[in-house]
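Deviations from the work plan: none for this task. Representative record:
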Amino acid sequence: MKELSIQASNHLYKVHIGSGLRHSIGSLIKGSYPQILIITDSEVAPLYLEDVKQSFSEGRVDTAVIPAGEQSKCMHQYEQLLTACIENGLDRNSLVVALGGGVVGDLAGFVAATYMRGIDYIQVPTTILAHDSSVGGKVAINHEQGKNMIGCFYSPTQVLYDIETLRTLPFYEIRSGYAEIVKHGCLDNPGLFKDVISRKLTSDIQEEVLIDHLLQGIAIKSAIVEQDEKEKGVRKYLNLGHTLGHAIESEAGYGRLTHGEAVAIGLLFAMYVSREKLGADMPITELYDWLEQHGYPLDALKSLNSSHLIARMKKDKKSSAGIVNMVLLQKLGEPTMMEFQDQELNDLLNHFQEEVMS
Amino acid sequence: MKELSIQASNHLYKVHIGSGLRHSIGSLIKGSYPQILIITDSEVAPLYLEDVKQSFSEGRVDTAVIPAGEQSKCMHQYEQLLTACIENGLDRNSLVVALGGGVVGDLAGFVAATYMRGIDYIQVPTTILAHDSSVGGKVAINHEQGKNMIGCFYSPTQVLYDIETLRTLPFYEIRSGYAEIVKHGCLDNPGLFKDVISRKLTSDIQEEVLIDHLLQGIAIKSAIVEQDEKEKGVRKYLNLGHTLGHAIESEAGYGRLTHGEAVAIGLLFAMYVSREKLGADMPITELYDWLEQHGYPLDALKSLNSSHLIARMKKDKKSSAGIVNMVLLQKLGEPTMMEFQDQELNDLLNHFQEEVMS
């Protein structure tokens, strides 16, 4: 088992990564909780819920299962889970366990953050993508008019990452998760970036390689988050690839592409803009080829309307007064921010489609 | 204008109290906000909304008016206000102004706390009761099954208290607000307690007296909150009178009694229990007479079922594993906590009704 510590504004918490951890969650958590609610989704429940439940020898353990998928990150499910907390008798000393991917983590985290003004929760991620969302304390639900519009900053008390649960992931989930690992490499570790895009990913990636990639990804993210938990400064860099990524995701309709697939296209676009505007030397072709080889949906952009995408980007939380703020790269490992007006962004997006994506 | 500073965990904020402040809110706020949303209710809007709106010479100012009353502190209004934030184009640099009493402050504060993971908000209280709720950063909405069950700790960036807005309060609101001032006196300032209960309150309390009482109340609350923002310890004392108070409020049905009226009865009960259990010398008769003289609904308890009230107390956020934690007084100005089981609490409640309330 590997360990990593993260300093949040109010407490220090640990990330444990290992094989089979789900069987010993009950003994790995620090603190004792008389009442525990495990929140998971309909895909994860039949696979791992019983294992996690069995791992607790003390305390009363209840469970709540939400439908799998991004549409569960909504006001309705949020309210239902709060009702479940009350009906199961959770009090201020209770624990929420978020067992699942980013949707479960974000939603269950927001429930824990706001139930009785905040109770403890732990993240038990079951996707590669959740190496990103499970650390850093961003929790949220979506509003019809925008992703993650409702939420807060509320860090877990622990993250327990069982690598075995990644073995059952469909390949598109591996693709989705690796987009964020590639992003983390671009931000602060060109070696990680190069290592990943030199590999052919398969469903049975070697355990040590996977743990290594996840640890490096989490280390990069946590170093940034420790500097700037509330996203007043450097944390914004973590949105590399997300300005266009979020816009693609919501414009295509949630569930049509995975988050990471959309971010991968956004990452290519950020590299393209970095080259055009900053003259940065960017491995665009190498990344494009690797994405194509692994089946990332590179043609998704074609079917989407540029001006609709730009309208979405302007509504992004990172945008201010209608101006789009994009994370660019001066070179691999050196992010920066740049503001864009509509027209310029529109031109860049059109040229990107012509020059890179076709 | 009087000023008082409060140290929250993440920032220092000021409370300004004065006459006519609503006309200069725009110039009194520190920081510049390109986009402002004033949230108020249907009773306050016709009286003061235009004044506050006019006070802003810069920035785009939008408004949202909720129906007056506790029933607005609900999930539905919360969601509607978040939609209003999006539709009015609020971004991370925008400001929410909570203009109203505790309902508006709690609800608008929770909206600000969770919109885009938290934007700035200021409290502009228009009731005496809100001298309590507008400081300390507790924001929340109610769940059908419990008051303030959903919320977080999120302090305003400023509190601007215009004494003139208290002039239009109906007398039951003055009664309601003064219950919390009396509570603050009991907790940490016997002089304030004695001063208040030696007076005959009227709708036209002298301005200096009112400012003095409010300032003392806020000073007591803020000193406690500065020590323990997240209610792990001493902040619990602020719940003096609230264990039974909340139970009465919800058992009678919100809106039947005001919050302060219910707390006043809870305060009497806390004094009674303090005398019975701790042998404390408590001015029960003096407080009872003063409450009766001012029309507090002392007979409300008669019509309520004791076991229902106790079931409500056990569901209170301060309760843990079904044991009720009550704040008692060793003497005026010296609070302490004590745990109670059902049966004992039931006996105490029945004796209280027989000995004190009839």
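Residues 2-168 of chain A form a domain with the Rossmann fold fold (CATH 3.40.50.1970).
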